[in-house]
């Protein structure tokens, strides 16, 4: 019965895993507006077989993700991916353009760095056109003390938007784009507490810029910025103090005026001027003789190979005798050594026989150094039954 329970448990785990492989999520990005999808680490942790909480244990393994457009090696150009460490959530984010409208399937593969398991998930993107949403006025803020992952969180974006709304005097704002400063040639900060890469946030609206924003178009402010002098602004701290905004890097983009072709350029009729008949160069038709080239490139290696072969044959056939001779000589030397060792041993043996001195007492068996008493090994055995002598004397 217990065996059955365990097996059904494993089967259930296997089944949920299979289902997990097939899970798909629908998401609906809108053209021109920032889209963020969080790859929740805890969700994927639960999908891994190991972390089925059989015994009420929950795991926290490192998980990394790889993402690609279905049947392509990489993501579509508008979609970017970031994950700071394998112990944090991953994010897919980006702003689709008009060309991306339609259905895109993104495959997400989650890798467990501890158990090497993988789980696949499909994200079905239905990219929609922005109906009636025009964002011709755009402002890009540079926040120095944030990483891109931090501002991808929805609550942080909303919090930031409150500050932007108060500067712009409107609530009709959307986040258009978020870019890490590293993507614009920024440097990776030193690993010192509080240093961040920095991030650009672009907000868009159909409401024209407020006077507060328009002051940044003032040449005086730009002059002070280029001279790196402190700015005197009259509406700078509308943001919560956790955002350190570099005001000199604020960019205003005004797309409200349709772009006219500059006057001065005269469109042509689209037909090139007649320049006569085209004569292809005749030289290429001439046939070229490659015989000598062929002979040189093949003959030289063949001759070299033959010479090497002859040298090898000579070494193998004619030099062999010499080798044999050398071997014979080595055997002679070895025999000579052997004989001399034998002679020396015999000599030592005869010398030892001639010597007639008693052996030192200490080399005799059962000699007591202190008493000088000698005992036969047998006698000793009867006096002391060593098996009853304790190895360690009992301590009282
Ligand atoms: C968003 O920012 C990225 C990186 O700077 C850029 O490649 C992309 O074109 C931007 N998208 C839009 C819609 O502005
Ligand atoms: C900020 O703007 C200045 C001047 O336009 C530029 O030199 C600098 O690289 C910008 N800094 C960042 C981090 O974008």
Describe the structure in your own words.
- This protein is α+β, with helices and mostly antiparallel strands and 396 residues long.
- Among the domains are: 111 residues, Immunoglobulin-like, CATH 2.60.40.10; 118 residues, no CATH class.
- The protein has 9 helices and 11 strands.
- A 4-stranded mixed beta sheet has the order 1-7-6-3.
- Strand 4 and strand 5 form a beta hairpin.
- The radius of gyration is 45 Å and the shape is extended.
- About 2% of the residues have low confidence.
- The site of one 2-acetamido-2-deoxy-beta-D-glucopyranose has 5 residues, from strand 9.
- Belongs to the sarcoglycan alpha/epsilon family.
- Component of the sarcoglycan complex, a subcomplex of the dystrophin-glycoprotein complex which forms a link between the F-actin cytoskeleton and the extracellular matrix.
- This is Sarcoglycan alpha.
- GO terms for molecular function: calcium ion binding.
- Its main location: membrane.
Bound ligands, named by name, code or SMILES: 2-acetamido-2-deoxy-beta-D-glucopyranose
Q: Compute the gyration radius: what is it?
A: 45 Å
Q: Give the beta-strand count.
A: 11
> Main sheet: which strands, in order across?
1-7-6-3
Class of secondary structure makeup: alpha+beta
Mean pLDDT: 82
């Amino acid at each position: 019965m217990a065996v059955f329970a365990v097996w059904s448990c494993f089967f259930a785990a296997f089944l949920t895993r299979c289902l997990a492989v097939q899970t798909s999520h629908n998401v609906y990005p809108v053209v021109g507006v920032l889209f963020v999808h969080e790859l929740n680490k805890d969700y994927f942790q639960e999908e891994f077989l190991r972390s089925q909480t059989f015994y009420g244990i929950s795991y926290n393994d490192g998980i990394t993700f790889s993402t690609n457009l279905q049947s392509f090696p990489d993501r579509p150009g508008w979609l970017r991916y970031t994950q700071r460490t394998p112990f944090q959530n991953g994010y897919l984010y980006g702003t689709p353009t008009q060309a991306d409208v339609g259905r895109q399937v993104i495959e997400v593969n989650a890798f467990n760095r501890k158990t090497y398991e993988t789980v696949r998930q499909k994200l079905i993107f239905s990219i929609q056109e922005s109906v009636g949403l025009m964002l011709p006025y755009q402002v890009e803020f540079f926040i120095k003390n944030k990483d891109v992952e931090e501002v991808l969180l929805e609550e942080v974006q909303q919090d930031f938007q409150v500050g932007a709304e108060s500067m712009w005097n409107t609530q009709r704002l959307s986040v258009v784009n978020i870019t890490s400063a590293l993507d614009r040639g920024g440097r990776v900060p030193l690993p010192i507490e509080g240093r961040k890469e920095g991030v650009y946030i672009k907000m868009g609206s159909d409401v024209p810029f407020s006077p507060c924003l328009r002051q940044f178009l003032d040449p005086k402010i730009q002059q002070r910025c280029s001279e790196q002098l402190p700015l005197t602004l009259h509406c700078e701290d509308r943001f919560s103090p956790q955002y350190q905004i570099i005001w000199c890097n604020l960019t205003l983009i005004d797309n409200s005026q349709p772009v006219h072709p500059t006057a001065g350029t005269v469109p042509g009729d689209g037909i090139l001027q007649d320049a006569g008949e085209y004569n292809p160069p005749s030289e290429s038709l001439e046939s070229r003789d490659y015989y000598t080239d062929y002979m040189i490139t093949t003959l030289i290696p063949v001759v070299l190979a033959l010479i090497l072969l002859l040298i090898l044959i000579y070494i193998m056939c004619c030099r062999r005798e010499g080798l044999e001779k050398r071997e014979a000589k080595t055997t002679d030397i070895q025999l000579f050594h052997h004989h001399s060792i034998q002679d020396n041993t015999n000599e030592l043996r005869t010398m030892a026989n001639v010597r007639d001195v008693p052996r030192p007492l200490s080399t005799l068996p059962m000699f007591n150094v202190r008493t000088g008493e000698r005992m036969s090994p047998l006698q000793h055995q009867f006096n002391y039954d060593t098996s009853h002598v304790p190895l360690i004397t009992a301590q009282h």
